[in-house]
Design goal:
By secondary structure, the protein is of the alpha+beta class. The protein folds into two domains: 88 residues, 434 Repressor (Amino-terminal Domain), CATH 1.10.260; 164 residues, Beta-Lactamase (2-Layer Sandwich). It is built from 13 helices and five strands. Strands 2-1-5-4-3 form a five-stranded antiparallel β-sheet. Helix 1 packs antiparallel against helix 6, helix 3 crosses helix 4 and helix 3 packs across helix 5. It starts with a helix and ends with a strand. This is Helix-turn-helix domain-containing protein. It comes from Streptomyces hokutonensis.
Length: 269
């Protein structure tokens, strides 16, 4: 039995999607119309076949994973009401709430306000499992996915959209971040949430190969001396370089405050 409400929601979302809001879209697919995204493009960004995405949009029952459905939500920028309907109709129950770090309750109000109200640089705070505790609006200019409040490592290492947005994904982003994850896995071997993040990362075939890579760098934080490149929403196929600077708050020593600063554009006009 087909679920026509799912078809209507996804077709309407595809038709209204502004592709310039998807970081790296033009680099992946070339320039063209900005209004509307095709089924094939959604499938590519979600890391599945055109047939598999088409089956979902047609409302046909299937064993659609949470990761796939979440990817469709992000790619099409579904409103909360739309997302709730698509998920409940497809899976038969409401979507699970994203894990919330117990450290969020310990974050002082003044420190949270400092992060969220900062206007000059992108700032975000994550715990030792890379679950987000706070971020400011500037961060969303670089990483729109943060508004979903999910895990930094899970996004960078397993989400197909990250591999579209992040230039030279494996060398500049994935290997250094995987090295950090390996270090934390050994520092907190009994932490349940840490194990869950590692399981999610290792469930992805590409990330699983990097987990065992012999040439991972021996680092525990990103180097501010090594810029990383990415595409930004609204900037087409122009590459931008950013630097990450990491700091540890005295009041939350197991957390890390990240400052993202721009470098000059490295290609384009």
């Amino acid at each position: 039995m087909q679920n026509l409400i799912v078809t209507r929601i996804l077709q309407q979302a595809r038709a209204r999607r502004d592709t310039s809001d998807i970081p790296g879209f033009e680099a992946a697919f070339g320039t063209g119309r900005r209004s509307g995204i095709t089924q094939a493009q959604v499938a590519h960004l979600a890391g599945v076949s055109r047939r598999w995405y088409g089956s979902l949009e047609a409302g046909r029952p299937g064993n659609y994973s949470d990761a796939f459905l979440q990817a469709v939500r992000r790619i099409l920028d579904l409103a909360d009401v739309e997302w709730g309907i698509v998920y409940r109709v497809t899976r038969g129950h409401a979507p699970a709430v994203a894990p919330v770090s117990h450290l969020r309750a310990l974050l002082p109000d003044a420190f949270r306000a400092f992060i969220e109200e900062s206007r000059t640089w992108a700032l975000y705070l994550n715990d030792f499992r890379w679950d987000l505790l706070a971020y400011n609006a500037k961060t969303l200019e670089y990483f729109p996915w943060m508004r979903y409040g999910l895990n930094v490592m899970e996004w960078a290492l397993t989400w197909p959209e990250a591999r579209t947005q992040l230039v030279n994904w494996e060398e500049e982003w994935a290997k250094p971040m995987m090295a950090q994850l390996r270090v934390h896995a050994e520092e907190w071997p009994t932490d349940e949430r840490m194990r869950s993040v590692i399981e999610t990362v290792r469930a992805d075939p590409t990330a699983r190969k990097l987990w065992a890579a012999p040439d991972l760098p021996a680092i525990t934080h990103p180097s501010s001396e090594q810029p990383r490149r990415l595409y930004l929403a609204g900037r087409g196929d122009q590459e931008f370089a950013v630097r990450f600077m990491a700091g540890t708050p005295d009041e939350l020593p197991s957390c890390r405050l990240m400052v993202v600063t721009p470098a000059e554009a490295v290609s384009g006009n």
